[in-house]
Design a protein that fits this description.
The protein has a domain at about 5-75. About 45% of the residues lie in helices and about 20% in strands. The chain is built from 3 helices and 4 strands, in the order αββββαα. It has helices at about 5-20, 80-105, 105-115, and strands spanning about 25-35, 35-45, 60-65, 70-75. The longest helix has 26 residues, at about 80-105.
């Protein structure tokens, strides 16, 4: 299970990969806690002279799942709220599939537990 600090390190490693494509200093700008983990928003640091942050293309937020230790690159073309909802549905489907597989693997154990 990941801590927020572990998740931050994963995201920073991804941001480091992006640094070779731009001349700006990049950093995590904001972190929101979600039921399954965190969403990390990132971008360029404000320019010291104009006090404006340079605009970047393709710097969509990262979702990080604390249980599955997944780092998910989101899309800039889809609203982030929809992507979060889609990922939560995926987690529910995966949990259901695990439960079903466990029942099929041990059918006698599940029958004996029934009243």
């Amino acid at each position: 299970m990941l801590t927020e600090e572990d998740a931050r390190r994963l995201v920073l490693a991804e941001i480091d990969d992006a640094r070779c494509h731009v001349t700006y200093d990049l950093q995590i700008l904001r972190v929101e806690t979600l039921p399954f983990g965190w969403i990390f928003y990132w971008g360029a640091v404000c320019d010291g002279q104009s006090r404006q942050r340079p605009r970047l293309g393709g710097n969509s937020p990262f979702l990080v799942d604390r249980e599955n230790e997944r780092l998910i690159h989101t899309a800039t073309s889809v609203p982030i709220a929809r992507q979060i909802a889609d990922y939560e549905r995926r987690l529910r489907r995966e949990a259901h599939a695990r439960k079903t597989a466990a029942k099929q693997a041990n059918p006698a154990q599940h029958r004996s537990a029934a009243p």
